[in-house]
Amino acid sequence: MNINQEQLNIFKTVVETGSFSAAARKLGKVPSAVSMSIANLEIDLQLTLFHRVGREPIPTDQALTLYEKTEQLLIEMNQWKQQAYALSAGLESSLDIVVVSELSHTNWTDYIALLEAQFPELQINIFSAPQEDALQLLMNESAQLAIMFEREQLESSEQFIELKREVLVAVAANQHPLAQQSKISFEQLLQSRQIVVASRDRAIKPELLYSKKNWRTDNHYSACSMISRGLGWGILPLEMFNENPELKHKLTLLNFSDFTPKFEYYVDLVWRRENQLGAAARFLIAHIRQQRNQSN
Fold first, then answer.
1. Name one GO molecular function term (predicted).
2. Which end of the chain has less neighbouring CB within 10 Å, N or C?
């Protein structure tokens, strides 16, 4: 059985228009070519698709059953062709992006929507991980791109472009002892339990760890829940308060006597210098660079 896309399209058009001649006009073919295509399709399928009684062909029950599947099959065949063309032009078979946990509330989905519009057949996989794990996923090539905070020390293989600034704040529940203090010393901070977003690998020290006593979680939503219960203080994205106004009534911004309570970081799009990036990743990087050039 050797059925091609053109045969299926002719079959679909004959069913929809109700005649060989009408299908031929719609497809820009001569009626004899349409009639012959249907006859060959019937031979290949060993089915009678149309009763040829009277002026117009009447689809059989078998033809109507196949017609229900034909449109979806034609769509999938077109998608398959588009994907093949895209892959031959250098498109990745899939694009894996890791987003640092504290940034999951930001507008990173705008970039995903942009990629979807440009490469509708691209498989995109999004992962969330603490900063240290996100970098590890990038370095071991489990992800091609990472959206993460700026790093104090850069790996030699890292390449990046800045996206935006993000503000983090130190907070505690209103009932927590630290929240009762107008000014908090660094020593008080060291002695109070910190809820820290960190790698599951306990050998990796979190970048924003200050207290000697700490509990770890791998995402800032869990951290926020524990902090809100008064189980410790922690550092959360300021944007969370805009996302969830209720937090303003549950949490207090801590005021330190020894250093500023606000931590401002650049957010970067990061990739490995040695990686051979595909068309979608290159497109996103170029788009962000163009945005930065226009804003400067």
1. transcription cis-regulatory region binding
2. C
Whether residue 51 contacts residue 14, with contact meaning beta carbons closer than 8 Å, is answered with no
**What is the distance between the alpha carbons of residues 205 and 215, in angstroms, rounded to a whole number?**
12
CA 177 and chain centroid, separation? 40
The per-residue pLDDT for range 107-145, each reduced to its tens digit, is 889 999 999 998 888 899 999 998 889 988 988 889 999
pLDDT in tens, 78-114: 767 766 665 666 678 889 999 998 887 778 899 999 9
Domains of the chain (ranges; CATH) run 5-89 (1.10.10.10), 94-164+266-295 (3.40.190.10), 166-264 (3.40.190.290)
CB atoms within 10 A of CB 238: 15
Q: How many CB atoms lie within 10 A of CB 1?
A: 7
Instruction: Count Cα neighbours of 93 within 13 Å in the Cβ-side half-sphere.
Output: 0
Token readout for 37 is 């295509």
Neighbours of 116 (CB within 10 A): 14
* Beta partners for residue 216, in sequence order: 196
| Separation in Å, CA 105 to CA 96, 99, 101, 212 | 19, 10, 9, 29
* Full-model pTM: 0.63
Could you tell me the end-to-end alpha-carbon distance of the chain, in angstroms, rounded to an integer? Answer: 61
CA dist 281 and 181 (Å) reads 48
Task: Confirm if 267 and 106 have CB atoms less than 8 A apart.
Answer: yes
Helix and strand numbers, DSSP H then E, in the chain: 11, 11
